[in-house]
Specification:
mainly alpha, elongated
Length: about 160
């Protein structure tokens, strides 16, 4: 049973590493503003996240099964009581690695979130600039000249010849 937990943790570590690589690729794609590549990355990442969720459910079930055999113990307490030192060290190393990878992935996702927010802000600003009212004055007018409202709404150029 413990071997199944160890194997599941190995698979979780592998998927976390893949998600980190995806996060790094997303960062590059966001900076370069390659929307099509971003869409593909998100699709692939969603598949990995689904796989990760399934493995996590499996891990939780395996841990629950192990703890049923050792009532009154938490998994950490159980891990401390493993008689085989190599297995105990491997298990601790896996848990520590998984925690480190999770922290790294969260940091990369936070950076990507900030990049995405900045991109969205830029796009919104550009849309606002392009769609501003045509009645906006494009030339300097003295304060005395501003009393007369401009009656024609032709934008930059007067098309009359």
């Amino acid at each position: 049973m413990l071997n199944l937990v160890v194997n599941t943790l190995d698979e979780l570590i592998s998927i976390q590493k893949q998600l980190i690589r995806y996060a790094e690729r997303k960062q590059t794609v966001l900076i370069e503003r390659k929307v099509d590549e971003l869409t593909e990355l998100v699709k692939e990442e969603a598949k990995l996240v689904k796989q990760l969720g399934q493995l996590e459910d499996e891990r939780q079930q395996l841990v629950a099964d192990v703890l049923e055999e050792h009532p009154g113990l938490t998994f950490s307490q159980f891990a401390e009581q493993i008689p085989d030192e190599d297995v105990k060290q491997d298990l601790h190393l896996q848990l520590k690695t998984l925690q480190t990878l999770l922290t790294e992935l969260q940091a990369k996702n936070k950076t990507n979130e900030k990049l995405l927010e900045d991109s969205m802000s830029f796009v919104q600003h550009m849309i606002t600039e392009v769609t501003k009212s045509k009645q906006q004055q494009y030339n300097y007018q003295s304060p005395a000249g501003q009393q007369k409202p401009q009656s024609n709404n032709q934008g930059f150029f007067d098309t009359r010849a």
